[in-house]
Amino acid sequence: MIASLDVGLRRIGVALSPDRKIVMPQQAIERRGRKQASRDVKAFLMEWEVDTLVVGLPKGGSSEEEMERRIKHFVSLLELEEDFPIFYQDEAGSSFEAKERIKGEIRQKRDGRIDSLAAQIILERWLESSKV
Questions:
Q1: Which helix (H) or strand (E) holds 104?
Q2: What's the pLDDT tens digit per position in 113-132?
Q3: What does the pLDDT look like over 15-69, one tens digit per residue?
């Protein structure tokens, strides 16, 4: 099982792919603090028996280095096994694309659906770029 994360300041969008073809957004994880969020994400990964993790990283922009540092620090808090495969995927425009995909379906609710749809887009991009 492959999972992806769209790490935000308030929520962490998550998506899963059981077969490298279908990607399903899941319920976003609320972020009340780094420790709580990392515990919840790790529990999610264990519950779904995830064996590969893809994490969105913003490329470009004035705060690229700071956001990359924060996201990689958050991933380190997950305390995954040393040989656990973690890949980073450019997430540029994924939130905008997620909002475009659901335009008209929901109003801008802050329930995490956009965050998890962004995670779905990140994983779809990674799967596409990793095809042999």
A1: none
A2: 888 888 999 999 999 988 75
A3: 999 999 999 999 999 999 889 999 999 999 999 999 999 999 988 766 778 888 9
The reply to whether CATH 3.30.420.140 applies to domain 2-129 is yes
- Give the burial string for 71-91 (b: 16+ CB within 10 Å, else e): beebbeebebeeeeeeebbeb
* Exposed/middle/buried for residue 117 (C-beta within 10 Å: 0-12, 13-18, 19+): buried
- pTM, whole model, 2 decimals? 0.84
Strands (DSSP E) along the chain, which ranges? Answer: 2-7, 11-17, 24-25, 29-30, 52-57, 86-90
CA-based R_g, the chain, Å: 14
